[in-house]
Every structure is written in structure tokens, then in C-alpha cells.
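PROTEIN DATA CARD
Card holder: BRCT domain-containing protein
Chain length: 141
Origin: Champsocephalus esox
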Amino acid sequence: METCKHVFQISGLKIRDKKRVLVQRIRQLGGKYIGGSVYQQASTHLIIPQVLSSEKFLAACAAGKWVVTPEYVLDSFKNGSWLAEGPYEVSISTDATSSFYPVRQWREKVASGRLGGGLPGLEGPPQGPRARAQGHVQTSP
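Structure generated from the sequence above:
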């Protein structure tokens, strides 16, 4: 069985109609959407409208996943197939011509095998008080 190369989560989109259209386009292009408010390791891409301080964003960055804008899906749909992610990758820099792209640099290091992803000794995404309160933290025996 072939694994899906485009498995998406979405964060920071508050307008339901925009999110619904994105999910439709993802599925029409043969991708998969994973809902929920907690980061899922099975995802390959996180869609965000701008840089966020959410747990999903931080975990996706730490895991070396693609973090792209909604335009990636919309433009891919117009194209009829998935486009290259690079031009749609979120940048923390406010200077569009800057070569300072920590999200991209981290993802490339994880993808090349120079880093294992995540943080040393961390199993799963970063977790804080909110995750503990929601029962998402796994404790060691």
C-alpha cells in the first residue's frame, strides 16, 4: 500500500468556509486531511496563514514538516497537481529577500538526516500545561 505524500493539518484558520475549501481541494488533489487541535506525527504538511505560537506549529517545525500557507493548496488546485512547496513555505523573517529561514533550515536538516527531528530525548511533540490539562501528555512508567 502506498503512503500518502500529502497529509495535512491546519492551524490558525478561523473562517470555516476557507478551511472547508482547503480541505475539499486537498482531497480533490489526492491528499489527506487530519483534523483536530493536537499535532499528529502522521502529517507531512501544516497549513497556517502566518507564523503562529501554537503547539501544532512548534511541533511541525521541530519534526521537520512542511509549514506552508493556504495558497500552496489553492495554487496546486489551479495547477491540477501538487506544486513544489518551497515558494509557499512560511518564513519567520519579515524581509522577503532575506536568506534567514529557520523553519526551512531546520526542515532541510531533518530531511537530510543531519538531525533526527524533534528535540533530543523528546518523544512526540512538545507538550506544556495545556496539553497536560487536556490529557495529551504521555508519562514514562
